[in-house]
Amino acid sequence: MRFLGMNRSDWLLFIGFAVVTLAGPIIFSPIGAGYPDLLQKFAIYGIFALGFNILFGLTGYLSFGHAAFLGVGSYTAVWTFKLLTMNPIPAIIFATIVGGLFSAVIGFISLRRTGIYFSILTLAFAQMCYNLAYSVLTPITNGETGLQLTQGDPRVLDVAFGRDYGAVLPSSDLFGIDMTGYPGFYFCGVMLIICFFITLRIFRSPFGMMLRAVKSNQNRMNYTGLNTRPYALTAFIISGMFAGLAGGLLAVTDPLAGAERMQWTASGEVVLMTILGGAGTLLGPVIGAGVIKYFENIFSAFNETILMQAYSALPEGLQHFMVTLSSLFVGEGWHLTLGALFMLIVIFLPGGLMEGLRRLRNLFTKSSGGQGPGNSAETAHSATPA
Amino acid sequence: MSILTIVDLNKSFGGLRALSNVNLNIDQGSVHAIIGPNGAGKSTLLNCFVGRLEPDTGSVTFDGTSLLGIQPHEINQLGVSRVFQTPEIFGDLSLLDNVMIPGFARRDGAFKINAWNPVRRRGPIAEKAMEMLKDVGLDDKSKQIAGQLSRGDKRRLELAMCLVQDPKLLLLDEPTAGMARADTNKTIDLMKTIAGRGVTMVVIEHDMHVVFSLAEKISVLAQGTVIAEDLPEKIKGDPRVQEAYLGGAHL
């Protein structure tokens, strides 16, 4: 059964995804994540990771410079706010376009090399963007302070439509709906759902098949009459546009852009999200982004007082020891937890969390006398299980 | 009529003269074998057809078009497909996908963004791919991942990937190397079927059993030059060939 060319299981997957996203505030509240600030981070970094996965998961090109496009998107969005209007729609459109243009240039040059050399080139470009934002480009980026809105911004479209924000700093609003709190989350959530739909279409299309072929064997592709470079470049540009959109959304929810968003640690983070969730899978990167942002939020909020309370049942000496030990892994040191988690996943589940879910499902179907070998052949055929 | 014409081809690697003044005509619809001892320049010659190597001097003309200075994918789009000595396949993809990709390449050209509509597993391209898999005897494995196949099966898969493109010229670099006798015979039968459809084939081969059961014409390459070119039965008795191959012993 097909509708708009997509089969039933893909529609179920998409609808399920949309429902979970929209019901996020309810679903994630039991684990303490049901509030808009964190949820919109899930959505934004989910978009970032989805796009990154189109490049890395499908073509195998590991970019270490995607934060540059995120940062560029943020700057573009803030500039759109300053010059045109506080409406988020023009901001994210421009952010996506400019992210795409930047990635076209960087991708065109970097894709002349493969493997580690490609990664190094993208890293070098991103660091260049980062340093330029701090130095020569200060008039555009406002250097270390970061690009902010001011009351004196022209906002020509807002003025033309008679929109006056008075004497306070405006925040982004969609035709009168303020983009903070839940509306902000729902705006990002809808974008995530749209991006997921696009990604799903790409994954199932002949183009997606070609991108997998790029990862699998470029030599065979060339001798099969296919030009590999434009395929890789298109994937690079699409992922750059997703990153630009994510950067734009960051600015929509908080109209401020700083260069630290472009730093290599931010590029590394999206790599971690994708691998943690499962590179090359549809849902993996979004799950990875959610897990990392969730842990960042939970663990970095812990401080010594909370730890003292947590271990209050222990005798005093032991309590202090445990607090000292644990405090390495929380607060500022939460990256240590992330590192440990990442190592565990990569060693025991090389396919990421999605592989873990798949194994659990296989275990379940097997123990309930499931379909056995026929089932495994099926999973092998649909090379992209959700 | 000649479909591939090679005139005065020269190629050196540093001081080593790999090919010197090679002239070769491949007739349309024929099966042409290129044989010769190790290091005679057979693979170098093949690499000059497909854009992997650029010859120093000389010309390679396929169907009226020069093949020099153009990219491998452009050469393929002209109708030249190649089977490699070590099978080059898409190891992470299913067999069906492996054969569908060349099908898309033939239909859509070297690059096309067809990102919105899903791959149809029952469309004409999939059907043709299944047909080719059936021809090479792999249709029952169409859902398997190609990397898990045995070496012989990988070669047959690669052949299906070439055939789905309806090539005008099929280049085969030692298609039976490392195969068991039974597999070799199966491959010979398969290639005979392909030749029966009028596909021009150039076969590089060590196994004389394969060469003499397939070839309509044989060129013998030794030390970078063509020392003989004739019908199989004449080549068998040619003293120069026996000299080059076996140092004078009889074939």
What can you see in these coordinates?
The complex is a heterodimer of chains A (386) and B (251). Chain A has 386 residues and is mainly α. Chain A has a domain of 248 residues: ABC transporter involved in vitamin B12 uptake, BtuC. Helix content of chain A is 70%, strand content 3%. Chain A has 19 helices and 6 strands. In chain A, the strands form 3 sheets. A two-stranded antiparallel ribbon of chain A has the order 1-2. In chain A, strand 4 and strand 5 form a beta hairpin. In chain A, helix 3 runs antiparallel to helix 12, helix 4 packs antiparallel against helix 5 and helix 4 packs across helix 12. Chain A is globular. The C terminus of chain A is likely disordered. Chain B is an alpha/beta fold and 251 residues long. Chain B has 2 domains: 164 residues, P-loop containing nucleotide triphosphate hydrolases (Rossmann fold); 77 residues, no CATH class. Chain B contains 9 helices and 10 strands. Chain B has a 6-stranded mixed sheet with strand order 6-7-8-3-9-10, with helices on both faces. In chain B, a hairpin with a 2-residue loop joins strand 4 and strand 5. The radius of gyration of chain B is 19 Å and the shape is globular. The model of chain B has no long low-confidence stretch (mean pLDDT 88). At the A-B interface, strand 2, helix 9, helix 10, helix 11 and helix 12 of A face helix 2 and helix 3 of B.
